Amino acid sequence: MTVTDFYDRLAPFYHLIYPDWDASIHRQAAALEGIIKARWGRNVQTVLDAACGIGTQALGLAARGYTVTASDLSPVEVARAKHEAAARSLPISFSVGDMRSAYAHHQRQFDVVIACDNSVPHLLTDADLLEAFQQFYACTRPGGGCLISVRDYAAEQHAGLQVKPYGIRIEGHTRYLVFQVWEFHGDIYDLAMYFVEDHGAAEAVTHIMRTQYYAVGSGTLISLLQQAGFQDVQRLDEPFFQPIIVGTHPQR
After folding, report:
1. What span, in angstroms and rounded, lies between the C-alpha atoms of 189 and 113?
2. Do the Cβ atoms of 8 and 74 come closer than 8 Å?
3. Fewest beta carbons less than 10 Å away: which of 32, 40, 95, 222?
4. Is the pLDDT of residue 205 over 90?
5. How far apart are CA 49 and CA 110, in angstroms?
6. 159: Cβ–Cβ under 8 A, 6 or more apart, which residues?
7. Which pLDDT tens digit goes with each residue over 166-183?
8. pLDDT the model gives residue 1
């Protein structure tokens, strides 16, 4: 299953990853805005979300007044993000695009480029990561910045078969059990995402999506962002739900 297939199939269920998706949208946007203002000033207006998914960060930032452009590899996720934005009357420009061709796709610069929710570790080599970061750099105006959020892979055991529970979600009369299974092969791991759909009968329906991730460390990501041209690259452990790495496109 390709990354696109994984997210196309995940799109209808993505919000179930969060106990309360709407609350997460607003909470994440508030945290991101605080970082953006602290790092790049209060005049930031334009944001490119280069891995928007179903819109978790894009929706929240647009609701806070930012002019948001958003793209993602998955056409099904982009379609859902468009629907969610329309339902909230948020004027976000969405399109389908690979983060490794972000500038070739958007052909302009933004105050800030973001890629959150552990999206960049879908790129399985340092060369692919560097290619994406070079595109982010080209998309960022001088004086602006890049912000990515990733899992803290240094805190994870890079071996064996692991179960990562997310919990129970209830929608109407349907109960979902949500969990992941990881299987490591060096720094690459296979991930299976499970949504067990229980309608109260003797049998349940299980939806499984499979993909791979690169358990890349923050030090490697910082080095690659620096190679791409960003300066003042740092890891921030607060206030987002994942570690954030930020870098600034230097003024000419």
Report:
1. 27
2. yes
3. 95
4. yes
5. 10
6. 184
7. 999 999 999 999 999 999
8. 81
Say what the pTM is. 0.96
CA distance 97 to 4: 11
Strand bridging mode 93-96 / 110-115 = unpaired
To which residue do tokens 């992941």 refer? Answer: 180
Q: How far apart are CA 219 and CA 227, in angstroms?
A: 12
| 165: Cβ contacts below 8 Å, ≥ 6 apart | 178, 179
Distance CA 136, CA 100 (A): 8
Tell me which amino acid residue 168 is.
I
176 close to 196: Cβ distance less than 8 angstroms: yes
Dihedral sign, Cα of residue 111, residue 232, residue 238, residue 38: negative
- pLDDT for residue 198 is more than 90: yes
**Which whole number is the average pLDDT over 34-38?**
97
How remote is the C-alpha of 91 from its chain's centroid? 20
**CATH numbers and ranges of domains, the chain:** 3-152+215-248 (3.40.50.150), 154-214 (3.10.450)
